[in-house]
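User: Can you help me understand a structure? I only have the sequence.
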Amino acid sequence: MEANELHDQSQTTNDVPAPNVYSEAPAPSRNKKSKHEHLEGMTGMLRGGMDNLAGAINHLSSLPPISETEIWNMMEDLDLESGMDTNAYIFLCQNASACRILIGCPKEQHKNLLSQLMPKDN
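Assistant: Let's start by predicting it. Here is the structure, written out as tokens:
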């Protein structure tokens, strides 16, 4: 029976799977490398986003200012109702981005777009 016991012991040690390169659990060094690569990728994305934002700010700051006279002439071209023209003029002088949006659209759409841009209480 001793031979059977030895055979049983050797068989149980052979039943334990040996670790190999295809095992499911990643090696700790690979896991660290993967996290490091992930963080580098995220850092790169953030840098790219910040570069895009800085470029947009630089572009906006390099645009020439729109003169009040130019804004007033645009209001006269729209032939707005009395009182509405001054409200629109003040609004556009105080909101440079809205003024640029208005100037950027086709002239035949200025009146419609201006009514959408301005607060409804005016």
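Now, to help you interpret it: Helices lie at 2-15, 28-62, 68-78, 84-94, 96-104, 110-117. The mean pLDDT is 77. Let me know which part you'd like to focus on.
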